[in-house]
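Our example pasted here:


***
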Amino acid sequence: MPERIAEHYERHAHAFDHERRKRFAERAWLDRFLLGVPKGAPVLDLGCGAGEPIARYLHDAHHPITGIDVSEKMIALCRTRFPRERWIAADIRDVTLDAMFGGIIAWDSLFHLPADDQLALLERMASWLSPGGALLFNTGPARGSAIGCQFGEALFHASADPAEYRAVFAKTGLFELAYKPEDAATGGRSVWLVRKPH
């Protein structure tokens, strides 16, 4: 199922964008995240979609953005909306980056990957994060996989166990600032906010 994610979002890019622009449940978490991102520091958005509402919020806060998404159509929308930012159409597991970031966001993206892929990517994310930078991402509350539904089609989701994410934090030197399992304010997402010490 994970390999079908790209096809799904490519098929439904405009419908997804239309629906996504109607909601911004993660705004409070983004505000907390930005408190830990140095002023004007570049931010990496993994699974950026079409740039609304997260990239716009970062853009309006004067953070240069690098956005990566598996959907070519989504990236095309980002390039139209924010032509001065850097947009990359790629699988977030495969991308190679030559920059460091003051903040990294993976909102509603990691959970489309198998749990072990999430943990491996989290290690790479830690290596891209500048000292003092912040990382915001969301998962499920426990290890497992589930099939959701979007636009009438099956959609793969998975999560590792919280202890497994924390083991990656320990290995890579990340510091956990906040964790809220099944946060009702974000529709039941389990949300992590972590930081790399100076």
Summary: Helices lie at 5-11, 13-20, 27-35, 54-60, 72-81, 115-128, 162-172.
